[in-house]
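Example protein
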Amino acid sequence: MGADHAIVGKDVLLNGQKYTVIGIMPSDFDFPVGAEAWAPLDFTASEGSDRATHYFEVFGRLRSGVSKAKAQDDLESIAARLGRDYPATNAGHTRA
C-alpha cells in the first residue's frame, strides 16, 4: 500500500476476499519475516473451541500511559486465571 495512510478504512481484495484496512504498520516492522499484510483468522467452530493448541504468539501495542511492567502483570494474571479455570490445557502457560 506504499505506506499510504489514506487507505485506512477502505476495502482491499486479498486472494479474492474483501477486507477493510484498519491500520498501517511502520516500514521497518517485519513480523513474521516477509509478511506484507495480515488478515483475521477464520477458525471453524471446533478450532475456535480447541483449548489444547498453543502455537500462536500474539503481540500488541501498549496503550499510552501503560508501562511494560503493568502490561506484563496483567498478562500474568490472565494466564494464571486461565490455568486455574482450564488446568488440563492452560496450567503452566504463563509466558507473556
User: Anything to note?
Assistant: The mean pLDDT is 88. Residues 46-90 form one domain.
